[in-house]
Amino acid sequence: MSGTPVQVPRSGRPLHGEPILERAFRVLGAFTEAGVGLALHTIAARAGLPKSTTSRIASQLTDVGALERLDNGDFVVGLHLLEIASLAPRGHGLRAAALPFMQELHRVTGQHILLAVRDGDEAVLVERLSARDAAAVKYRVGGRLPLTGTGIGIALLAHAPERIRKEALAGANDAACVRRLLATVRSDGVCAVTMPNPLRSGPTTMSTVAAPILSRRGDALGALSLVAPDEGGPRTAAVTALRRASLAISRAASP
């Protein structure tokens, strides 16, 4: 879930005639961190719904296993959602093809290996392998990432429809830099990016090497990236390894 604030009418009531399914997804969208329980009033505020409506919907979602209620009354995401989400073909099928190559990269580098797919104007992380002693990062499976603010997002954006690229570039902080990276991805099949670490602990900057995973027609099935502390040295080995892995996954996912 992206955690994007919901536009709420001034009355504080849901939009007139809004389908119950949309309100249910607004309740589910209130959960933005894995394993964190939320009180009913917090869910209502984030979803932009009256507390009574939120209570009724949360109870119904609990009955079907989409939410679970803790002993203290807070709600957490239920296991039934995980069961359903695991069946998503774009995530699960690609993950199955990519996992052996991700595991080898993880074994060799001891760093974070990420796999993502594009969903509209965002990247969705479908797998992450991390060593115990790797630098802490905020990325989580199921989390959403901006297409212009991460290496893996740029790898996806390079092969996104033109409309998506134009909209993303219009909102980019440094559109010229993003354009250069997109050109590098399209010409070399990989890009290397150094960005500030959003976490207060650990290294101040992180290095990302990312590559798209393409179908035989050239469409982006997903993207692969390696995230590690920036050591300021050459990244030739990482670039070569990521490029080889992405090509191998492309062949495995598009036989």
From TrEMBL:
It comes from the Bacteria. PROSITE patterns: HTH_ICLR, ICLR_ED. SMART domains: HTH_ICLR (SM00346). InterPro entries: GAF-like_dom_sf (IPR029016), HTH_MetabolicPath_Reg (IPR050707), Tscrpt_reg_IclR_C (IPR014757), Tscrpt_reg_IclR_N (IPR005471), WH-like_DNA-bd_sf (IPR036388), WH_DNA-bd_sf (IPR036390). Residues 80-255 form the IclR-ED domain. It comes from Streptomyces lancefieldiae. The keyword Transcription applies. Residues 18-79 form the HTH iclR-type domain. This is Helix-turn-helix domain-containing protein. PANTHER family: HELIX-TURN-HELIX TRANSCRIPTIONAL REGULATOR, ICLR FAMILY, HTH-TYPE TRANSCRIPTIONAL REPRESSOR ALLR. Keywords: DNA-binding, Transcription, Transcription regulation.
